[in-house]
Amino acid sequence: MYEDKTLICKDCGKEFIFSASEQEFYAEKGFENEPQRCRECRAARKQSRGGERKFYTAVCRECGGEARVPFEPKSDRGVLCSACFEKARASSEK
């Protein structure tokens, strides 16, 4: 089905492998273009764009504790703290 491909990074010019599993992932997500940068250049570019992520503080809708989230909470939707989020995820996987 998919086979590893050797691509050239458009930033550093280094060859990198676009693996069969990565190609399958791209296809599942509907990504039409192959990556143009190697893993190192993608990481460097991502780091230079955003720097530190901004976090917001809210009240957890389950336990009432503090929840720190990377998005601005909306008043009509509750937010879960990390512990309650993990509990909810674990119970939904059963």
Concise synopsis of the structure shown:
This protein is an alpha+beta fold and 94 residues long.
Explain this structure.
The chain is α+β, with helices and mostly antiparallel strands. The protein has 2 domains: 5-50, no CATH class; 56-92, no CATH class. 35% of the residues lie in helices and 17% in strands. The protein contains 3 helices and 4 strands; from the N terminus they run ββααββα. It has helices at 20-29, 39-50, 82-92, and strands at 5-8, 15-18, 56-59, 66-69. A two-stranded antiparallel ribbon has the order 1-2. A two-stranded antiparallel ribbon has the order 3-4. Strand 3 and strand 4 form a beta hairpin. It is elongated, with a radius of gyration of 19 Å. The mean pLDDT is 89.
- The oligomerization state is single chain
- The SSE order reads EEHHEEH
Number of domains: 2
What is the 3D shape?
elongated
The number of strands is: 4
Strand order across the biggest sheet? 1-2
Major sheet: 2 strands, antiparallel
Approximately how much beta-strand content do the residues carry? 15-25%
Topology (SSEs and partners):
Layout: E1 5-8, E2 15-18, H1 20-29, H2 39-50, E3 56-59, E4 66-69, H3 82-92
Antiparallel strand pairs: 1-2, 3-4
